[in-house]
Amino acid sequence: DEALRPLGTRGVRLLATGDDPVLTTVRAEVARAAQVARGTTTSAPVTLALAADALAAAGPGAAPRLRTAAEHAIALAERPGLAGTLGAQGFVVTRDEGALVVVAAQPRGLLAGWHHLVRTGGDTSGEAAGDLAVHVPAQAVRMLDHWDNLAADSPMGPVERGYAGASLWFADGRVRDDLTRVEHYARLLAHTGINAVCLNNVNVHARESALLTTGIDQVARLATIFRAAGISTYLAVDFAAPITSGALDTSDPLDDDVRAWWERAFADVYATIPDFGGVVVKADSEGRPGPFAYGRTHADGANLLGRALAPHGGTVFWRAFVYDHRQDWRDRGTDRARAAYDHFTPLDGQFDDNAVLQVKLGPVDFQVREPLSPLLAAMPHTRLAMELQVTQEYTGQQQHVCYLAPLWREALDFRPWGPVGGADAAETDARTVADVVRGTDALPGGLVAVANVGDDPFWTGHPLAQANLYAYGRLTWDPTLDPSDLLDEWAARTFPQAGPAVARTVHALLDDSWHVYESYTAPLGIGFMVRPGHHYGPDVDGYEYTPWGTYHFADRDGIGVDRTRATGTGFTGQYPAPWRDVYESLETCPDELLLFFHHVPYTHVLHSGSTVVQHVYDTHVEGAAATQRMRDTWRDVRGVVPDEVFDRVAARLDEQVRSAAEWRDQINTYFWRKSGIPDPQNRVIP
Ligand code: GCU
């Protein structure tokens, strides 16, 4: 609430009539700001208006501020395409002799405008006076997927891959009675830019499957809270729900009874939650049911749900995370990385307009370093969303500091058809991944991420992991934001009284923390090497002889997965030029992805000039040492941040230091024992 003070002191006039729940929220926020700033002088006021109301209020005798608002409203109405561009979610801002005016066409846009003002403290000096600054989200869909289960005794606990306590909204098999924290959470998400949440785990077990049917009244309580924050509610559904929640003996997507079952189910859902967003589906993946059982395609499956949702305006997010998790490790011809592309590219063009294919960032599974999923460049006739993992399953489980915004920025900025300005610049498709998933106004894709929040007092277990949640939301709105600036924004919001010392410390710990984490864990893009099951801590061969398809193939001579067309699995061929050739060749493959694409001797010389084995030794020693420096740096803010935050972070940094040393020693010893190549500095365990 501290952040509201500057706006409160300016005095905010709200021109918006009607009882829309989002407008009610804006009204409450404005009143709260006035309350926070009570007793201070009003200066350089702010007007917040819906276009229609601004027009209606601003007659010839209206105050100058109203006239300005009305002018913007007229500009909105008249500037070709502007109202369309702003749509439901955008807003315009102008500054006129210190007075600020924000106009939106729709309530959600007005709420976004309000949060923009809060974030900037009403200081929009970045925007030229008199100019109409147009703010529209880059992505129309900005979603968080919660992997929450209904109870602590659910398979995988209360939250699958959750590192922040139990679910904020489910407990003991139902929606909690007290949803106060959910209200705070919805407000927080709206502030970051999120506009959609999926409430339950993609692995939908029997109990959770009933949320869609007998549980929908409980879901409606949550939808009411999220609606008021401008956030749509989604559920993950079980493809076999007609069997598990209904009385059918099939879930064949082409069966008439199955179709009728879904139609009835969604009719009931929309009777209870008229603005229900839709569903998220994990099918034929890691043991979940799906259309393959009936010899049908994933387009058949997605369209079955899509057509039942279509009359109500709902959308199906269909996950592309489909692969064989019962692989024979002896068979080097099968490549898990290939799976999504192999399954889905033949279906391009077959998905209905209200189906979005949700593709994980990398072709394997949220590793600390992966190339971009080639599927994102291979479905021109399909709506595509990219899925990220904010919860730090493979990046330290919120025990380790690992700020992921730089990783996400790299992916969003990546140009699947090559860098701009290359030899064939004119021919090149210059779109970035952010452009690809933006889709079109009529058929947008979006960004989706697995959430990292639970009922922990600090929301995210590790207090500094909040920065990932904040940065994710902001990047969904604007993928060109600088991760370092986002840290400043987050630190200022989170530690309002703390000042520059905290910002400095936060930067020192977080700015490079992704690279630090990478440097002491699985090297050069090889991935995994984690303990099977819970995925925390090192176990180099933990997955090597298992069915999961996540191998490194280390032997006495070398390590890495040959995914070339020439001699390997052919995965490089799934990329368009130039990447298919860049990754194919040892000459051009970037060091950080070397072992993802190539099997090389330990003595292979990297572009950096080091050998593979020496690089491993050096980076692991340096990475572990960096965590010790992080721990020391944190001591600078003792007494500056609240004690409970200080202590929690300090305890987690102790664990990070311990764990990083364990990673260093296991990885380095492994490479030494396999290769027999000593570290010139003798830093490995014999
Ligand atoms: C990972 C994770 C699972 C999850 C799966 C998914 O494999 O370990 O817990 O279910 O991703 O994204 O579906």
Automatic annotation (TrEMBL):
InterPro entries: A-glucoronidase_C_sf, GH, Glyco_hydro_67_C, Glyco_hydro_67_cat. Residues 134-459 form the Glycosyl hydrolase family 67 catalytic domain. GO terms for cellular component: extracellular region. Signal peptide: none annotated. GO terms for biological process: xylan catabolic process. Pfam families: Glyco_hydro_67C, Glyco_hydro_67M. Gene3D superfamilies: Alpha-glucuronidase, C-terminal domain, Glycosidases. GO terms for molecular function: alpha-glucuronidase activity; xylan alpha-1,2-glucuronosidase activity. Residues 460-683 form the Glycosyl hydrolase family 67 C-terminal domain. This is Xylan alpha-1,2-glucuronidase. It comes from Cellulomonas persica.
